[in-house]
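Follow-up to my post from last week.
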Amino acid sequence: MKRDVRVACPNGHTFDASVHRSANVTTAPHLRAEIMDGSFNLTTCPVCQIESYADVPFLYHDTTVSLRVWVYPERDRHAAEEIRTKIRQAAAIVESVLPTDRRGPELLFGLEELRALIN
Ligand SMILES: [Zn+2]
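User reply:
Got it. Predicted complex:
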């Protein structure tokens, strides 16, 4: 599922880009390939044409291995406890309606950590 979000290029230009806020690689396996090859949520700045990763939180979901993990920007690592609290509250609402198994970490920072996990 793609959503429009405001992102910034490395030169500081801000623009709206359509990016994935969730990636269910069970139903959309190409998203896993994009994460591995670096084309996932890649945006092009309309001003300077620089390509950069839209560093916005997204939910990585692989039902075949019961993995459901939030991937937050590296720059948010200092707020890990707040983010964990937030995603646990959200998960509690969802799981009260639809209980699901989950394995592995619930929160990662940066695509590198995700690549290391799913590689
Ligand atoms: Zn730019």
